[in-house]
Amino acid sequence: MRALRVKNRILVFDAKSSQLTRTITLSETLGSSRLVVDSTNSYVFVVTSNGFTSFPDLKVYPTRTQAVTPLPRSLLNVSTRLQTEGSDNVLIGGFIITGLAPKKLVVRAIGPALPLPGKLADPVLELRDGTGALVAQNDNWNAHRADILTTGLAPTNEHEAAIAVTLQPDHYTAVVRGVSDSKGIALVEAYDLSSDSDSKLANISTRGKVETGDNVMIGGFIVGGNQPTNVVVRAIGPSLTNFGVAGSLADPMLEVHDGNGVLLAQDDDWRMYQEQQLTQTGLAPSDDRESAMLLLLQPGAYTAIVRGKNNGTGVGLVEVYNLDAN
Q1: How far is CA 126 from CA 174, 176, 210, 242, in A?
Q2: What pTM did the predictor assign?
Q3: Residue 268: other Cβ atoms inside 10 A
């Protein structure tokens, strides 16, 4: 590298190709000065002296424009609040890990700490893999106190459940139910603790009984990284009948809000607004009454709300797909 001073600018050239690599514009015109490039060709040192009585002034500038390194486009967290009951109406959260590397997560089931009436007093959490095999389970998080405390995600109530686990890429399911089949409002959460790894959370979903008022389905998710991420958000109901789910939500409606509660998008029937775009993603719902939207989201927190049309109730599914996971 070689540096040339022109008035209040420093021009930095590649010594071999003579190509200009950077122009540094200074806030003031330099007096008597000397330019030095370090031995690694990474920085220009500017030594300025305005006379014999003043101390030299040293400024350091990188020789190349500092590029922003793109971080992985990832889903860092998912949480869904819903009424959990017995049988098929327990709270079921699913997620898919893609890639080749293991991923460290914390999965939690929150109940007593929720500031709501009718909350689940004592949630129990199970984590199962794609074959249905039990990977881990927990009733009260203090049973694994040391493991949970080191993550910084310990629940505030000892009756809540949490699992810290490192998982291979696969499909997983988190099931939340009450002790002795008790009922109440609960929150299931999954936190990605290794978002910079080669594996990604490509899909997150939650299934449960959608009711009215405070008992609609409320799903939250966090988009990580430092660049916009393409996601598909879906609200599924009537097609669940094809998978043997009784009492499915007949006509789900979907809203997505940002971290300030501002409504970003809403949908009733998925063909209304983005039929072609959703079809091209391969994620278009199979029933016209179901809702879906394709969104380009900045990093931040978002909320997806699923309710039944005309206050309908039934079992519904909310899903978020990260299209930039691969």
Answers
A1: 6, 7, 21, 25
A2: 0.69
A3: 15
